[in-house]
Amino acid sequence: GRAKPYDHAVGNIHFIDVFKSPPAEVVVPGRVKITYQTSNALGALDNPIYNAGAVWATLAAYWIGMGQNERFENVSLRGFRAVTYMGSPIVIDHTFGSIRGVNIGTCLGEAAWGGSSCSLTVTGGPGAPDGNTYTVGEPKLEVAFTSTDGVIWYRKVVLEAAAVPAQTALPV
To answer: Lesser CB count within 10 Å: N end or C end of the chain?
Structure first.
């Protein structure tokens, strides 16, 4: 999935949060590539291995909650990658107003103290897969046969996905 910070205003009231899209599920055609070689080393692959689970996005937020209690969240967003703007993280910095001393906003669903500020950003995660071709899963290398002159031949099996289609824009 994708995680994108946003500031939604209704009049003077601001709701600062992170939109989390569900993971995109799309059928990507692929091919099984089988080659034979005498080396027992896997060697270079034509395309990188897609390993989205190696690193996930991280949310960092700071704000003053009700009762003037400082709040800080720094959490991993398992299964999500950060949405960026022109290659840079999206950072939301907002100072909340107040009406007669009453707060008029929230940060991550919690009321924020009137006159305080909220800073929220989401960074990291796997890169956008759009338009890229990947090796899917772990390539396999196994002994295939021994030739009549005693040379051991190995079979390398690689599953390659075709180019991943572009994802649709998020609604926020």
So the answer is: C
